[in-house]
Automatic annotation (TrEMBL):
InterPro entries: Aminotransferase_I/II_large, HTH_trans_reg/aminotransferase, PyrdxlP-dep_Trfase, PyrdxlP-dep_Trfase_major, Tscrpt_reg_HTH_GntR, WH-like_DNA-bd_sf, WH_DNA-bd_sf. The keyword Repeat does not apply. It comes from Corticibacter populi. Gene3D superfamilies: Type I PLP-dependent aspartate aminotransferase-like (Major domain), Winged helix-like DNA-binding domain superfamily/Winged helix DNA-binding domain. GO terms for molecular function: DNA binding; DNA-binding transcription factor activity; pyridoxal phosphate binding; transaminase activity. Keywords: Aminotransferase, DNA-binding, Pyridoxal phosphate, Transcription, Transcription regulation, Transferase. Residues 19-87 form the HTH gntR-type domain. PROSITE patterns: HTH_GNTR (PS50949). This is PLP-dependent aminotransferase family protein. In the C-terminal section; belongs to the class-I pyridoxal-phosphate-dependent aminotransferase family. It comes from the Bacteria.
Length: 493
């Protein structure tokens, strides 16, 4: 091989490409060594000789030899030359087990990993009619944000460019506590607020600090698939609790076996949209206190209610310190911001602040500083008020479109708040097929049945988001969806 080395290298070095000559030469020599084309112990040509044969600078070859030596491909001996190192794997190889079949890619995952992927509900598309849970990011006051962002960066504070400690940026925790006391009737002080990257991380932190593998946790049925998947992948046993018009409704059988954790969406149940009644809230709080259960209140989009003021939080009613309140700015500002928050009981605040710093090594203090000023100067409140009016208009247009096509034949529910509504399909058995057929026509929806824990309890329907759909697009987009839905209606047979 050595006699042909220069010829082999020259043919490949002459190939067109933007890669510098020294990188291409190093890569080719690495390939030759790893493939066995250059055997261990073989002496490479001197840098002067190889440079002359390849027509390149000697410094280039010298640099490549030094890099190969640093990475262990060759060994240089002063006065005697450069030799291919022994990179053989023979001494590390074990005898293969007889009869073992190669594993497919999904089989190489852990059991927990396979279940996570199999249950995954995340969509590859995140924008368009009628994607649920996505705000209209084109309406975000970007000029204001950029001005605040530039102001914060001009201050050049080193503490904003390092890891976050103590639960996050203190001024953001202060203005958030003030905002939640007014807007959500929450009972909190700045020390109880912990800044996270969103509701998923908030729930994950609570699970890691409060639960052990095998613990039981109550989840609503139906419920948000993302949190349910997170709980199960963490080794917890999710117990589905049916939801009625008053919210989570545990049976005597459920109440006889207290869980470690209860996860609920009392202000706007996801996905059905009902509000947990005061009676049910008080029952849940008393039950949690009597049985030492923790409650995670997921308050994902309560800022947007149409016709009435936002409801008070469950956390604000809690006299026992059992509720962990979680929220984020994904719906009120934009999902890519990746800033969420928790309000934890005072007795647990230090543990959660330490836990998030230890497990996730949080940062983004500059982003938190910008957000603190955005809230403190009143821009958050004005943005929410403006978007509430816009979303109410779009909600009305979508409901009108449904009634125009179907009258009262199809139920619409959950549209009094938030960024989505549910269109019931009581006569359709396979709402997933409807959703997939709509996707083929460029319309994004989610099948309601996918949010239930079992076939026995599920109802069919489509979850339709209206927030990110321009008002003029709602009618034509629903026309396409209606044509798709009609193919699955019994009358179409």
């Amino acid at each position: 091989m050595l006699s042909n080395l220069s010829e082999w290298l020259r043919a490949r070095l002459d190939e067109t490409g933007e890669e510098p000559a020294y990188r291409r030469l190093a890569r080719l020599l690495q390939q030759a060594i790893l493939s066995g084309r250059l055997a261990s112990g073989v002496r490479l040509p001197s840098s002067r000789a190889l440079a002359a044969e390849l027509g390149i600078a000697r410094n280039t070859v010298t640099h490549v030899y030094e890099q190969l030596a640093a990475e262990g491909y060759v060994q240089s001996h002063s006065g005697s030359g450069t030799y291919v190192a022994d990179t053989s794997l023979e001494r590390l190889r074990a005898e293969p087990r007889t009869g073992r079949r190669p594993l497919r890619d999904h089989q190489r995952l852990s059991k927990r990993g396979r279940r996570t992927i199999e249950m995954a509900g995340v969509s590859k598309l995140q924008w368009g009619a009628f994607m649920p849970g996505v705000p209209d990011v084109t309406e975000f006051p970007l000029k204001v944000w950029n001005r605040l962002h530039n102001r914060v960066w001009r201050q050049i504070r080193p503490e904003l460019m390092t890891y976050a400690q103590g639960g996050g940026y203190r001024p953001l925790r202060r203005v958030l506590a003030d905002y939640l006391r007014v807007a959500r009737a929450a009972s909190c002080e700045p020390d109880q607020v912990v800044i996270t990257t969103g509701i998923h991380q908030s729930v994950d932190l609570a699970v890691r600090l409060l639960c052990d593998v095998g613990d039981e946790v109550w989840v609503e049925d139906p419920c948000y698939w993302g949190v349910r998947n997170l709980l199960i992948s963490s080794g917890l046993k999710a117990i589905p609790i049916p939801v009625d018009e008053e919210g989570m409704n545990p049976s005597p059988r459920h109440l006889a076996r207290p869980p470690r954790l209860i996860v609920c969406t009392p202000s706007h149940q996801y996905p059905l949209g009902c509000v947990m009644s005061l009676t049910r809230r008080r029952m849940l709080l008393d039950y949690a206190a009597a049985n030492d259960c923790w409650i995670i209140e997921d308050d994902y989009d309560s800022e947007f209610r149409y016709g009435i003021h936002p409801l008070a939080s469950l956390q604000g009613l809690d006299p026992h310190g059992q509720v962990i309140y979680v929220g984020s700015f994904s719906k009120v500002l934009f999902p890519g911001l990746r800033v969420g928050y928790m309000v934890v009981p005072t007795s647990m605040a230090d543990f959660f602040a330490q836990g998030i710093a230890e497990l996730y090594r949080e940062g983004q203090m500059m982003q938190q500083a910008v957000l603190a000023e955005f809230i403190d100067e009143g821009y958050l409140g004005s943005h929410i008020r403006r978007m509430r009016g816009l979303y109410a208009e779009r909600r009305g247009l979508l409901i009108d479109a449904v009634h125009r096509h179907y009258g009262d034949a199809l139920p619409v529910f959950g549209g009094e708040a938030g960024l989505h509504m549910v269109l019931g399909l009581p006569q359709v058995r396979d709402d997933l097929a409807v959703s997939q057929a709509a996707l083929a026509q460029g319309i994004l929806t989610r099948a309601l049945s996918g949010y239930y824990n079992s076939v026995r309890t599920m109802h069919t329907g489509l979850i339709l988001g209206y927030a990110c759909v321009p008002s003029e697009r709602i009618d034509p987009a629903f026309e396409v969806l209606a044509q798709t839905m009609d193919r699955f209606m019994p009358s179409a047979a």
